[in-house]
Batch of 3 targets.
Target 1
Amino acid sequence: MLVRVRTALAATLLALAASAPDASACPNCKEAVASGSPEAQGLADGYNWSILFMLGVPASLFSAGGVAIRRAVKRGVFPEL
């Protein structure tokens, strides 16, 4: 039962992510990147990495917290949930 719920949730999230509309940049940023200058490409790469970092840090923190709580429960240090 739990596996079906997780599979349905994962499928729903994947469908929502796949159907999301494309993001468009402001006209000035779009023209700067389209010009192909090295500075504009560096700026675009910086934005891409910052977005990935902002998405990755909360996921890492929640994962580490979950692992720490699970280990504490298994060792008996933390009360069972």
Note: The mean pLDDT is 83.
Target 2
Amino acid sequence: MTTGQGSAAEMPEELARALAGAEARCLRAGAQLTELRRQVLALVLEAEQPLGAYALLDRLKAQRPGAAPPTVYRALDFLLEQGLIHKVERLNAFVGCVEAGYDHGGGHDHHHPHQFLICRDCGVTVEISDPAVAHALADAAARVGFRVGNATVEVEGFCAACATRPPEAAGA
């Protein structure tokens, strides 16, 4: 199902909640989650893997035939600024923030610790938010006189499904 083409009743409940939470966060921040931004966010949240800007553009064109690259890039910049998505640098692609669908009332400043686990074989990417990892990194940095501001950790390996396959069946 492509979000934006059907009614709200056709949208999966979890996605509808995430979009409502995102809209509430934007309103609290004095920002507007326009229909276009909402469509791009929905596409990112629905994706099974991180999506690059041009893959998003291709999907968006199903809903907005005249969409152009600047349209997607402006929407992505807004969504990043609002803390609704993350950019996975290693893949040059975007994923929804694990906190994006939650309306915390007081807001979420998007500086929560986040780490990405990227499967080398199938490409699945999972965001975890483990404060212990962030503390370990900050402690290691402090030992050499460095103070960490924000950190994104991207770890390559194999997801549970790919790790259990015989080596000859794996693509990497």
Note: The chain has two domains: 1-104, 111-172.
Target 3
Amino acid sequence: MNEQLQTLTRSLTKQPGAAPTMIEKVMAALGVKPPADYIAFLRASNGAEGFMPNGRYLMLEPVEQLVPCNEPYGLGSSSPGLVTFGSDGGMTLFAFDIRRSPIAIVAVDATCMENGPVTQCGDTFVEFLEYLESHTE
């Protein structure tokens, strides 16, 4: 994991990294090609959880939980175009918006994921983490 990712996730409790083959298999099942820095993060830490320096809570799902977390919304081409990968521990989900090219990372209300407004948080995983660090709820 690069130094910038390490700095931005320093306050999170991290898990051992995921195998590249598992990451590829899950991303193919989800129909998503996430930013390269997100893949690098998963290789170094398969999920993480904790408070950001600004007090905001962040839960990043382990790669093997991504399919079960997204199944209620549909997978791949049957999804509403949002593939979740984490949350704030409450009602805000963080997702890849695969309706865009390149994809964006967005925040969306869990109760109205399909029709609710989305907040763009960045195009890369680093930009997403920087967004969370600079914005309190």
Note: The chain has five helices and seven strands.
